[in-house]
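Build the 3D complex.
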Amino acid sequence: MELTSREGWTVVHGLVLGTVFLLTFGGGLAGLWSLRPGFITARGIKERMTRLYIGTSTMAVVAWLTVISGTWIVYPWYRAGLAGAGDDPYAGCTGLALPSDTCSPRDFLKSNVSGTTETWHNFGMEWKEHIGWAAPILATAAAFLVIYYGPRLIARPWLRAAVIVMFVGAFAAAVVGGVFGAFLNKVAPIV
Amino acid sequence: MRDESRQENREAIPELRELHLTEKPDGPGAAAMLAAGIGILVLGLLTTLSEVSTGLHDFLAKFEFGQGVGPLAGKTILAVAGWAVSWVILAILWRGKDVDIRRMFWIGLVLGVLGAVLTFPPVFTAFAG
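Done.
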């Protein structure tokens, strides 16, 4: 039972960081949602806020690590141009059922040698690689707002709602990246 | 514009009264909100403009530093730079000040949604040359 270096990085990028992101989002959202008058005592607020500061900050850091590792480590393996020979840009993919060392995942998807797969790249990967970067920007802004205002958010429902919108926006951007990443790694795994 | 109700709100909430919180100006919060929208808009604009202009596409690819990332490198580096620089500038301008945070949130939201739409493949490929 072993993983190659590339498989290991895809696991770190998608599974390890993705899991921590999900956990911190769930905890952060629950904490923000219940940050309302009358829900907790002053002592409870102090305890709750400490967790919220750590949770939202961790989510922001993990979002940065995810997009940086995805873009600068995993993505170059995905997009490498390996298949071209002569006039045929996908010659190296002929007859393959999965990407190989002569056919990168992008080559494989765009070549349509194993079904109609090009939309996975043209829509899925193209959307994922761009919108994913909105996640750390929004998560960092939301974490800053939580830390800056702290318990004051309890007295300002509108501001708390605005922070939740940004927090959920970060999650939504990450969901696009995560869902398409899982499907793409199924259809055209990085080898 | 200062939200005049917030001090009264705090005083009306017993558990917050016990915490003896001091007032905080909205300038830094508004700066964070608006800068996030600006960063995502820059990302969306570069994604779409890269389809329109081969010159820009090639320029953005120069940011990959031989790593094989292509123009995505330039799009994301410049978007993050736009976000960070605008946040720093706005934070300095609005430091210790009260600004209309609701207005800045809505402006930031519109910019962010517009930027997100411009990263949607059916939209940016419609501009492809």
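The mean pLDDT of chain B is 93.
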